[in-house]
Amino acid sequence: MLFTLIFQGNLNELQPVHGEDRQYSCDECGESFSQQVILRAHQRIHTGERPFCSGVCSKSFSQQNHLKNHQRIHTGKKLFCCDVCKKSFTDQKSLKRHQRIHSGEKPFCCGVCSKSFSQEGNLKQHQRIHTGERPFCCGVCSKSFSRQSHLKQHQRIHSGEKPFCCDECGESFSQQVILRAHQHVHTGEWPFCCGVCSKSFSGQSNLKAHQRIHSGEKPFCCDVCKKSFSHQSHLKKHQRIHSGEKPFFCDVCKKSFSVQSNLKAHQRIHSGEKPFCCDVCKKSFRQQNHLKRHKRIHVDVCSKS
């Protein structure tokens, strides 16, 4: 049985046609077609030619139907509607992807652990767990990540960007999850309670971290020296001892630090800020350990008298 491409601008749709002559052959790969127009569209795969250009944003495409799909971004036209929830989409591919939410279909399966996914992109992301691939690299410190979202999150360390803002007090945060935890300060909500000491927390992750105080569990282990930690953030901080990574940069003198708290302490040299004040003589200091050392003067004076 011969197969020919039914050309509606889409080279991926095949339909069997009995006994049809395929006289137009591609010089590059040898694939043959029944119509010259289909061959020309196919050849753009090899040449990289993109003759169909958007008049709005100048983005170009190899196939006319891809241009039509793209143009709906500008027009806002959404022709493809979900028959379950009536949500509409600009292209059929997006609709099919959405429909898997309702059907529960997960056609993309991992060949290593057999875990399945509703979207091909999620499968590719998952497979990096097995391969160890980290294709997203930071241009500042060269640290690499398996997900682009993790890279963007990391880059805010260098840029200082805090795009998530609290509506109540205006304080901003680098991560949405931190903003959500902060918002409990205003609502007073602490729904997660420790069964041992009855201490309550605004987030479940905070409760889990707290419970390790009681259990003594240290699940985060350094693969270099095997030292273990109760918090993942403590492990990350520790690993910089081995890697020599210093991702926290002073924007005044460009000096770098492995720990953010050290950067903050250093920045007070430039700002002149001295937030730690002695309650006896009112002398103030840039660092808390300097205040503690100073307080011994008063203790020694009292003990001598």
Automatic annotation (TrEMBL):
It comes from the Eukaryota. Keywords: DNA-binding, Metal-binding, Nucleus, Repeat, Transcription, Transcription regulation, Zinc, Zinc-finger. One of its GO terms (molecular function) is DNA-binding transcription factor activity, RNA polymerase II-specific. GO terms for cellular component: nucleus. Residues 24-51, 51-79, 80-107, 108-135, 136-163, 164-191, 192-219, 220-247, 248-275, 276-298 form the C2H2-type domain. The keyword Metal-binding applies. It is found in: Nucleus. Pfam families: zf-C2H2 (PF00096), zf-C2H2_6 (PF13912). SUPFAM superfamilies: beta-beta-alpha zinc fingers. Its main location: nucleus. Belongs to the krueppel C2H2-type zinc-finger protein family. PANTHER family: C2H2-TYPE DOMAIN-CONTAINING PROTEIN-RELATED, KRUEPPEL-LIKE TRANSCRIPTION FACTOR. This is C2H2-type domain-containing protein. It comes from Cryptotermes secundus.
